[in-house]
Amino acid sequence: MARVPTVRLNSGFEMPQLGFGVFKVPQDETERAVTTALQAGYRSIDTAAMYGNEDGVGQAIEDAGLARDELFVTTKLNNDAHGFDAALQAFETSRRRLGLDYLDLYLIHWPLPATDRYVETWQALVKLRNDGGVRSIGVSNFQPAHLDRIIDATGVVPAVNQIELHPYLAQPELRAYHADLGIATEAWSPLAKGGDLLSDQTVTSLAEKYGRTPAQVVLRWHLQLGNVVIPKSVTPDRIRENFDVLDFELDPDDMASIEALDRAERTGPDPDRFNP
Questions:
Q1: Could you count the other beta carbons within 10 Å of the beta carbon of residue 211?
Q2: What is the CA radius of gyration of the chain?
Q3: Residues 241-265: pLDDT tens digits?
Q4: CA distance 147 to 119
């Protein structure tokens, strides 16, 4: 089985660069999907309280019988749990649902700038890390201004910022900002939800050149950029296909041609405006 490369986080822990996401996977399908992923070789699983499937992830992990130190488990704080005490309680609820003694990574899911409680929420995550409940803490969908505020308030730099990132939204400025601060960039929606991107002529031509699928080419692009990437699927063949991206490499010119597809096109909400 191919060995997944890792990214060394600023917390000192290693995070697999290729993981399995369960966004919008129904609870009754989650256990089967995660089991398939673990059997395929994934060792990093990404969920969230918002997804409503932490129990299914936890059951699949328990049934797999893998050593705890072989796994890297991420979940995220729900949007209704911002605030210091609420975040501490929400963490314990997620940890209990997952059936784990500790989490590898805990993220604030969205900054919710109109609510404006993400600084005290970050302070709660710092406490959780210091108390040993979670090894690494980070954020999701944070913009530079949001990052600056929590770092200025606490002196603690997030280990990860999980953002929407794909060839149609390559986010070079935010990736460079992360690099300057020592924050790992993690891509959600890495395939732009599959739509036009996977039928784009640039991507399909490269897929033909390398004898791979369009999705494999895009995932390989992410890995070579240094992104952590978490493709999601409930189809066993697709789950295995998305993992089979470790034994080929894109040429520099081909990497550049994919990067040139950037058109600042989001598939999800704008973090500066999202406040459900």
A1: 8
A2: 18
A3: 999 999 999 999 999 999 999 999 9
A4: 9
CA-wise closest residue to 232 among 204, 275, 190? 190
Q: How far is CA 40 from CA 3, 75, 89, 189, 237, in A?
A: 12, 21, 34, 20, 10
Q: Model confidence over 10-52: pLDDT tens digits?
A: 999 999 999 999 999 999 999 999 999 999 999 999 999 999 9
Residue found under tokens 């603690």: 156
CA 256 – CA 203 distance, rounded (Å): 12
Nearest Cα to Cα of residue 52 among 87, 91, 78: 78
The C-alpha atoms of residue 31 and residue 237 are separated, in whole angstroms, by 16
Structural tokens at position 13: 């822990």
The Cβ of residue 70 has, within 10 Å, a number of other Cβ atoms equal to 9
- Catalytic residue flag (residue 51): yes
Alpha carbon 151 to its chain centroid, in Å, reads: 21
Q: Tokens in use for 262?
A: 């950037």
In which element (H, E) is residue 185 found?
strand 184-188
Domain residue spans of the chain: 6-259
Residue 176 has a CB neighbour count (10 Å cut-off) of 11
* Closest C-alpha to 213, from 188, 186, 228, 235: 235
The secondary element (H helix, E strand) that includes residue 168 is none
Is the domain covering 6-259 a CATH 3.20.20.100 domain? yes
Give how far the C-alpha of residue 29 lies from the chain's centroid of Cα atoms, to the nearest Å: 20
Catalytic-role residue among 51, 106, 118, 168: 51
- Cα distance between residue 271 and residue 154, in whole Å: 22
